[in-house]
Amino acid sequence: MTTIIPFVSEASSDERQAWREALPEALRGIARVAPFEDLTEVERTAAKVAIVANPDPAKVAALPNLVWLQSLWAGVERLAADLPEDGPLIVRLTDPQMAETMSEAVLAWTLYLHRDMPRYMHQQRAKVWQEHVLKTPMERTVGILGIGKLGSASAQRLKTNGFNVVGWSRSKKELDGISCFHGTDGLNAVLEQSDIVVVLVPLTGDTRGLLGREELRRCKENAAVINFARGPIIDVSALIDALDNGPLSHAVLDVFDKEPLPSSSPFWTHDKVTVLPHISAPTIISTAAAIVARNIGTYLETGEIPQSIDRNRGY
Ligand code: NAP
Ligand code: GLV
Questions:
Q1: Element (H or E) spanning 213, and its range?
Q2: Residue 87's domain spans which residues?
Q3: Which residues contact 140 (CB under 8 A, 6 or more apart)?
Q4: Is 230 a catalytic residue?
Q5: Which long-range contacts (CB under 8 A, 24 or more apart) does 121-129 make?
Q6: What CATH number does the domain containing 217 carry?
Q7: Along the chain (315 residues), what's the average pLDDT of each consecutive run of 10 residues?
Q8: What is the domain count for the chain?
């Protein structure tokens, strides 16, 4: 009998449609993927694994025998908050292509700051012809907060491009050619030496508000921040204060407390802020669908469940 895998999603209808085409194709011969809404009560009760993208928690709860669920996103803070701790195991998306895409974004926006693009853009608007001293990448230290799948790929890419890179994680780590720090003292050390701070930690109870007034005050004079992780990791008013009154010179923000960013947000018009619409590393449907198919195929064949998040740590 063919196994039915529910697909539970409240993503936009275009996105849902794209997944509804890609997932059945990737899982052909392994299982039949069906939208939650199309399943009978018996099929919902039989489901042991589901694929989710921004799901309604009530729909997940309506799959009472789920053992695990496969997220199509890397960040699963909302699932961790919405689903009971004794609920299904949460498997997040880990895709080498996403690490590649994120490292490309980190390199691109680091170069944007390194080559003073925001300042030259303002100068052009004011018709100012003025040259600023050019630093070499070697003279710039980029601090990466979170050196997991995405952060470590980004660190290596920056290193390859000549930047001095330091990293910070929860547990002690070693990365080739990169000075690694951990713990509170480690965070301070990274903030105090970085010209550019890249945020790539997951949003958890420990990282919410990680960069507040005190932490941002530790940053170097004219340092810049790139947040490619989740909005609430940086305190909004502390960030605006650090941009207005120092020490920060610029912030590149791809993620926000509320998305889409409301038109009332001061970030839209702030001179020292670049707003991006959560585009640094979108899930690539083709590679992600193949990974999901492999995970589910292995589970159905051997019972092996891919590594799930640790509910105590929150990631
Ligand atoms: P990951 O592999 O789980 O890595 C997380 C890193 O953060 C690890 O190094 C971890 O430390 C560190 N960390 C976690 N909690 C910490 C804490 N309290 N103190 C210090 N370090 C801590 O995650 P990932 O795949 O790299 O993804 C990171 C995040 O990127 C996701 O959670 C998501 O929010 C975001 N993301 C954004 C986009 C976008 O388009 N903007 C796309 C994809 C993902 P250990 O190494 O010690 O565990
Ligand atoms: C995107 O932000 C993701 O978590 O995959």
A1: helix 213-217
A2: 4-95+283-302
A3: 114, 163, 164, 195, 196
A4: yes
A5: 122/271
A6: 3.40.50.720
A7: 95 95 97 98 98 97 98 98 96 98 99 98 98 98 98 98 98 97 97 99 98 98 98 98 98 98 98 98 98 98 98 96
A8: 2
- Distance, in Å, from the CA atom of 152 to the CA atom of 293, rounded to the nearest integer, reads 25
Would the CB of 227 count as within 6 Å of ligand 2? no
């919410």: which residue's tokens?
A: 208
Q: Do residues 84 and 104 both lie within one domain?
A: no
CB of 209 within 6 A of ligand 2: the answer is no
Instruction: Say if strands 248-253 and 141-145 run parallel, antiparallel, or are unpaired.
Output: unpaired
In-domain check, residue 308: no
Residue with tokens 């947040």: 227
Q: Is residue 65 part of a domain?
A: yes
Alpha-carbon distance of 241 to 195, in angstroms, equals: 18
Query: Do residue 87 and residue 197 come from a single domain?
Result: no
Q: Which of 94, 101, 170, 233 to mutate to test the pocket of ligand 1 (most atoms within 8 A of CB)?
A: 170
